[in-house]
Amino acid sequence: MAWNVFKFCTALRAFGSIMIVFFLGLVGVTYYAAVVAYYGPHLFRGGFDTLIAVAFLFLFHLLLVMVLWTYATVVLTDPGGVPLNWRPLREEEKGDADPLVGLGYGIAKIGTNQSAVPGDFKNLDIGFCLKCNRLKPPRAHHCSICNRCILKMDHHCGWVANCVGALNYKSFLLFLFYTSLAAILVCLALLRVFMEIFNDDEVDLTPGKLAATFIAFVLNLAFAVSVLGFLIMHITLVGANWTTIEFQAKDKKTGLTWRYDLGWRKNYEQVFGTEKKLWLIPVYSKDDIRRMPALQGFEYPTRPNWDPQH
């Protein structure tokens, strides 16, 4: 009998909850080591020490707010599920003015056939999920852990106990960005104390504070390296408009060009929106939500004159 890895899906969901607790615990240890044990008391020393402490505490708390905000958004936001009776819209239902035309996007036209069966929309990348037994929009994939199809699914992330998809991908990328910055800042701030521990220098900290500092430094260093590498990978994927799932399966594609690659600027706009002032926070403008169907996860513009054979 074949080994079924999906029998562990329930355990993986429980594991995600454990990872949330672990991450929040890491935040707590880091806060205690960096703020309570070390830089907080430096505020009252005066002179250059106070200036350094003020600068660090300001940057640290700013990044901490952004880390927790983006993390909560990824965890609590539904990544986007496929409605029970979803069908692609007829051309006449879209209206005469496609909101993407003004932004310079081209978009695949969907036919008027509404009596859809598997394979009817192969050229438009509209699939059929055998597990859900219904149509799924372009770029949607079935998550065996969540047991449903996710719009523009990138991957299921154990660290957030949630899928990363169309509606929370921006928040996920911002979480990686702010977490890597915060981890690097903490490592630089605690490096001196960490080195003093191994140089047998006298450190003005209690054993408990030394242990917390050691743990915080090591874990933040590990986070800085791993999360930064993960962030670079995702920035590269966004620049070419791939999801992780699509990139892993790209050797199976028949075409040499990716139908959704519109150039790096428009590719990034499909994730971050067109409002530059909102790029660094996990929200979109109402105009972007109205004008860009890609932000909702159901409809994606394609390369003009895209040919799967070239």
Automatic annotation (TrEMBL):
Signal peptide: none annotated. Its EC number is 2.3.1.225. It holds the Pfam family DHHC. The chain crosses the membrane at residues 12-39, 51-77, 172-194, 214-240. It is found in: Endomembrane system. InterPro entries: Palmitoyltrfase_DHHC, PFA4/ZDH16/20/ERF2-like. Residues 127-249 form the Palmitoyltransferase DHHC domain. It is a multi-pass membrane protein. GO terms for molecular function: protein-cysteine S-palmitoyltransferase activity. Coiled coil: none annotated. It catalyses: L-cysteinyl-[protein] + hexadecanoyl-CoA = S-hexadecanoyl-L-cysteinyl-[protein] + CoA. GO terms for cellular component: endomembrane system. Keywords: Acyltransferase, Membrane, Transferase, Transmembrane, Transmembrane helix. The DHHC domain is required for palmitoyltransferase activity. Belongs to the DHHC palmitoyltransferase family. This is S-acyltransferase. It comes from Gossypium tomentosum.
